[in-house]
């Protein structure tokens, strides 16, 4: 069997470890041939691929980024309509050209949606879930999330010391368009007095009340806010242009929120946007282990013919779940989960 490995969407710490796990198990244990397409679907369309074996994946686990590259190049030449068979014909033709029997697709919701479409059209595919946002359904955690949280928590620790020194309120913006998992977990880990997430709008009056209560205790506030957070009655803060999926490019909510907090409280307030720092650098040990186990599970699933599935973390076990469980809806922060943390704000 010859399997094509392809990464799509944003990069995420642990992707290299996942490739290594899949190749070591697939090639050395199961006797597969495996190839990697460079820069996602661009490499597939253009025939830009490399052979994957033990030598090719040597030393990958601690490396950030992804050696194969990733992109948001679309997989299909035109939108898939009712005639799925016709829409998939160009992909099947290239698979035959490359001698590819199946795919392993590493990505988030968009990538796993593509995997489901391919599977529905009869193309053998297995999904490996990565995203720093942890918003993919069907799995408890995605690899990359723990690293992003750890980086954000370290930033909170550093901002707190400078905020305390100047008696300032510090506002840290982290990633999270529709789901606030990074903001929630990093805020808890770093002891932030307020964590603001897309799932739950708050008023500027409420945020200012929390900040003032911290000041009244003789402390300086640390507010962590997800990029997709909206004040009550407000809209998301967007920058110019669209992202790779044609959505408004978010960013800058901290820079909008900071002067409002200062205006309402009289406390000097500064904003920091963490941005793509959250994606970079070496993955944490947790993400390296999870990604490696995910890659091995995907190779084992290919060996046993469990196509149309995704390698998901369930408790402490990696299990194969139908792709239908992973796509169609984002895994957002439950109201009850936010409310239990919100009780400690201020």
From TrEMBL:
> Which residues participate in Mg(2+) binding?
109
- Binding sites annotated in the UniProt record for substrate: 131-133, 168, 175-177, 227, 270, 276-279
Q: Which residues form the Phosphofructokinase domain?
A: 2-301
Judging by the UniProt lineage, the source's domain of life is Bacteria
Show the catalytic activity: beta-D-fructose 6-phosphate + ATP = beta-D-fructose 1,6-bisphosphate + ADP + H(+)
Pfam families from the UniProt entry: PFK
User: Its annotated pathway?
Assistant: Carbohydrate degradation; glycolysis; D-glyceraldehyde 3-phosphate and glycerone phosphate from D-glucose: step 3/4
Annotated catalytic residues? 133
As for subcellular location, the record says: Cytoplasm
Per the record, its GO cellular-component terms are: 6-phosphofructokinase complex
Please list every transmembrane segment annotated in the UniProt record, as residue ranges.
none
BP terms from Gene Ontology: canonical glycolysis; fructose 1,6-bisphosphate metabolic process; fructose 6-phosphate metabolic process
The record's comment on protein family reads:
Belongs to the phosphofructokinase type A (PFKA) family. Mixed-substrate PFK group III subfamily.
Complexes and interactors: Homodimer or homotetramer.
- The entry's protein name is ATP-dependent 6-phosphofructokinase
Q: Which gene encodes it?
A: pfkA
């Amino acid at each position: 069997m010859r399997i094509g490995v392809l990464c799509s969407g944003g990069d995420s710490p642990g992707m290299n470890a996942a490739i290594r796990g899949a190749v070591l198990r697939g090639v050395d244990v199961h006797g597969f041939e495996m190839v990697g397409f460079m820069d996602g679907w661009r490499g597939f369309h253009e025939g830009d691929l490399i052979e994957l074996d033990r030598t090719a994946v040597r030393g990958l686990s601690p490396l950030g980024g992804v050696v194969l590259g990733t992109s948001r190049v679309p997989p299909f030449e035109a939108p898939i309509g009712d005639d799925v068979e016709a829409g998939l014909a160009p992909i099947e033709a290239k698979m035959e050209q490359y001698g590819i029997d199946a795919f392993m697709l590493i990505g988030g919701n968009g990538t796993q949606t593509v995997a489901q479409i391919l599977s529905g059209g009869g193309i053998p595919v297995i999904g490996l879930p990565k995203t720093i946002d942890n918003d993919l359904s069907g799995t408890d955690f995605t690899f990359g999330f723990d690293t992003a949280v750890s980086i954000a928590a370290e930033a909170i620790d550093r901002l707190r010391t400078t905020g305390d020194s100047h008696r300032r309120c510090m506002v840290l913006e982290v990633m999270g368009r529709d789901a606030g998992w990074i903001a929630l977990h990093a805020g808890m880990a770093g002891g932030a007095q307020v964590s603001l997430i897309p799932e739950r709008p708050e008023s500027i009056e409420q945020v200012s009340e929390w900040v003032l209560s911290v000041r009244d205790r003789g402390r300086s506030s640390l507010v962590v806010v997800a990029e997709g957070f909206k004040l009550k009655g407000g809209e998301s803060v967007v920058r110019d242009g669209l992202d790779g999926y044609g959505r408004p490019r978010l960013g800058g909510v901290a820079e909008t929120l900071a002067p409002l907090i200062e205006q309402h409280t009289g406390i000097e307030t500064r904003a920091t946007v963490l941005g793509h720092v959250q994606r970079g650098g070496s993955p944490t040990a947790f993400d390296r282990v999870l990604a490696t186990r995910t890659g091995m599970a995907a190779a084992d699933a290919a060996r046993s013919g469990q196509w149309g599935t995704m390698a998901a973390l369930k408790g402490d076990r990696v299990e194969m779940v139908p792709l239908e469980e992973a796509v169609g809806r984002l895994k957002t922060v439950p109201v009850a989960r936010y409310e239990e943390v919100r009780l400690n704000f201020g």
